Amino acid sequence: MRRTCMLLVLLMPMACQPELTPAAKAAQARATCQAQATNESGFDPLTAEAPARTVASTHRRGGETLGSGAVAKGAAGGAAMGALGGAIAGDAGEGAAAGAAIGALLGGVRRHKETNEMVTTSHANPDYQEYVQAKKEFKRAFEACMAKSAGAGS
After folding, report:
1. Residue 108 pLDDT > 80
2. What are the two backbone dihedrals, phi and then psi, of residue 122, each rounded to the nearest 5 degrees?
């Protein structure tokens, strides 16, 4: 028997190798299809890293710096409060002037604070959309290959 196998090895090297189990055949088909799908799609699920779904950016709110009305509104409100306080103290005009100055200052501070406020916005990451599309293409190619190999194995 040993001479026969050796003779067969020389003539047909595959004749003495054991036949693959169904699980081994399935694993071999899966590996072959994965390699083929990676070549077709250019996407390798074993090494690809998913990028973030969204990207964020932070910037100053900005806005109108001149003519926003914050200073005038502050001055008007301050003058009204100052006039009321001045009337109680006995000099409405002086109270109104002092109130207008303080109100204008507070209005300017408010405007400065609003225009320099930091705002963060987020939006969809285009790199993630490309990743999803490449992954879909890989899956399509892999499933087509597996369907072929299942049909060929029957």
Report:
1. no
2. -130, 150
Two tokens at 115?
């225009």
Whether the CB-CB separation of 145 and 33 falls below 8 Å is answered with: yes
What does each C-alpha distance from 34 to 8, 21, 95, 139, 148 come to in angstroms? 34, 20, 83, 9, 13
Question: Counting beta carbons within 10 angstroms of the beta carbon of residue 108, is it exposed (0 to 12), middle (13 to 18) or buried (19 or more)?
Answer: middle
Report the pLDDT value the prediction gives residue 103, as an integer from 0 to 100: 66
Q: What is the pLDDT of residue 1?
A: 47
Tokens of 134: 């490449």
* DSSP, res 19: P
3-state secondary structure of 59: strand
Q: How many CB atoms lie within 10 A of CB 56?
A: 10
Q: How far apart are CA 36 and CA 148, in angstroms?
A: 12
> Which residue ranges make up each domain of the chain?
30-56+124-154, 62-116
Residue 97: burial class (beta carbons within 10 Å; 0-12, 13-18, 19+): middle
Residue 149 has pLDDT above 90, yes or no: no
- From 99, 108, 109, select the one nearest 77 (Cα to Cα): 99
